[in-house]
């Protein structure tokens, strides 16, 4: 089950946890599908083969023109409905934020209560005269790239755990110290890392299957994006340094010298993360650089990785508390904040149980993120989406990796 739209954008100056962004996450942008002109290209008298392709006939051109006109008309009709719908979603979201800021209660009528329109017209036809450009497939950076950039840019190699259990113990210790419950940490690990993922698992590679490939830079037990790593260093880096300095004070010999050097490297990374304004888009640009990719390798370090990853979840918990939400978040609710961003996630989890079956999930996504998210579309009201998340957590939490993490608490 892939929830990973990474639509991770937050409200105002609040903490930003956006992915899918595309994850993840930063937040509402309406993407209207451009309408193609219905005018068909004029046929050439002597269409010649390109790269061995058969000549295009006048009949093919005419057929293409007819289909293109039909598609354009259908698409325009759809946009005439879809555009206003998604504009109303954005307007209602803005109004809810204003109400919450002024202490007013949010009620059912503050949400768009109809499902988004679905395009049911003909598909866009292929231009028979178009030359197919041979473009190489887009490749995402993977663990080897994060490690290589960490070494070349910061002369840093993560301290690897001698076993998966060792990393799980460090993660459990950091999570418990930060105030996360075992249930939250284990079930989110189960959901994000497939219940058996190792500490270096990357999105798309959770399961060992032929042809698997990375689908984002999301890494680790609760799947941080490169931008998350940069942003957490910019905003919480001093806290990580303080934690390591506390350990240095109790050490001697080579281990102490090694950790002191790591602190120095960490400070350099923090400085780089703070070289731009504290905004998601600015951090996103840094994350795509060689230094940004190197910073992401911190997730693989036994000393820093658990701190970095648990802080991602703690930030969401603190966001809810700052909004006056005192009820402990369930793992599924915390996951909604982890996936959709704190602002949208809080909008969901603070909703009374009674109206959750009536509110479409489209209220919590930008159009572009929603239309790519088959799970949110299939589970199209809040109660169903939370139930689907819980169900996946129930299944994955029974796998050996999740059981090992639970035992580490």
Largest sheet: none
H and E order:
HHHHHHHHHHHHHHH
Task: Assign a percent range to the helix content.
Answer: 40-55%
- Roughly what is the average pLDDT, rounded to an integer? 87
Strand content: under 5%
Number of helices: 15
Low-confidence stretches: 1-50
From the alpha-carbon coordinates, what is the Rg to the nearest angstrom?
24 Å
Distance between the termini: 27 Å
Structural class by sheet pairing and helices? mainly alpha
How many DSSP-defined strands?
A: 0
- Broad shape: globular
Key traits:
single chain; 409 residues; mainly alpha; 15 helices; globular; disordered N terminus
3D architecture notes:
The chain has 409 residues and is an all-alpha fold. It contains 15 helices and no strands. The radius of gyration is 24 Å and the shape is globular. Residues 1-50 have low confidence and may be disordered.
Write the layout of secondary structure elements.
Layout: H1 58-101, H2 143-154, H3 164-177, H4 182-193, H5 226-248, H6 253-273, H7 280-287, H8 290-296, H9 305-322, H10 331-340, H11 342-349, H12 367-371, H13 374-378, H14 382-396, H15 400-408
Helix pairs in contact: 2-8, 3-9, 3-15, 4-10, 4-14, 4-15, 5-6, 5-7, 5-8, 5-9, 10-11, 10-14
Q: TL;DR of this structure?
A:
The chain is mainly α and 409 residues long.
């Amino acid at each position: 089950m892939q929830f990973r739209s990474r639509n991770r954008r937050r409200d105002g100056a609040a903490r930003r946890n956006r992915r899918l962004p595309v994850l993840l996450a930063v937040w509402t942008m309406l993407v209207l599908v451009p309408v193609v002109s219905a005018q068909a290209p004029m046929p050439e008298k002597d269409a010649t083969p390109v790269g061995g392709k058969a000549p295009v006939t006048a009949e093919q051109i005419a057929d293409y023109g007819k289909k293109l006109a039909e598609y354009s008309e259908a698409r325009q009709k759809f946009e005439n409905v879809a555009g206003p719908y998604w504009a109303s979603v954005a307007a209602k979201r803005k109004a809810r934020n204003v109400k919450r800021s002024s202490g007013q209660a949010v009620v059912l009528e503050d949400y768009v209560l109809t499902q988004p329109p679905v395009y049911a017209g003909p598909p866009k036809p292929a231009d028979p005269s178009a030359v197919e450009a041979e473009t190489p497939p887009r490749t995402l950076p993977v663990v080897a790239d994060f490690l290589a950039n960490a070494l070349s840019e910061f002369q840093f190699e993560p301290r690897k755990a001698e076993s998966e259990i060792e990393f799980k113990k460090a993660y459990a210790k950091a999570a418990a110290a930060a105030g996360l419950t075992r249930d939250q940490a284990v079930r989110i690990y189960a959901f994000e890392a497939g219940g058996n993922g190792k500490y270096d698992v990357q999105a798309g590679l959770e399961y060992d299957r032929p042809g698997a490939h990375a689908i984002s830079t999301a890494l680790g037990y609760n799947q941080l994006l490169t931008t998350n790593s940069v942003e957490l260093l910019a905003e919480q880096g001093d806290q990580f340094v303080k934690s390591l300095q506390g350990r240095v004070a109790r050490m001697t010999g080579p281990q102490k010298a090694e950790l002191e050097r790591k602190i120095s490297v960490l400070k350099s990374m923090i400085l780089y993360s703070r070289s731009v304004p504290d905004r998601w888009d600015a951090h996103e640009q840094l994350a795509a650089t060689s230094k940004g990719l190197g910073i992401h390798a911190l997730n693989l370090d036994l000393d820093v990785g658990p701190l970095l990853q648990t802080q991602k979840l703690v930030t969401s918990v603190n966001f809810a508390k700052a909004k006056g939400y005192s009820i402990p978040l369930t793992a599924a609710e915390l996951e909604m904040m982890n996936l959709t961003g704190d602002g949208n996630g809080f909008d969901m989890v603070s909703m009374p149980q009674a109206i959750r079956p009536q509110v479409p999930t489209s209220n919590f996504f930008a159009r572009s993120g929603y239309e790519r998210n088959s799970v949110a579309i299939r589970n199209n009201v809040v109660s169903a989406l939370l139930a689907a998340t819980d169900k996946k957590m129930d299944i994955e939490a029974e796998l050996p990796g999740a059981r090992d993490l639970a035992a580490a608490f």
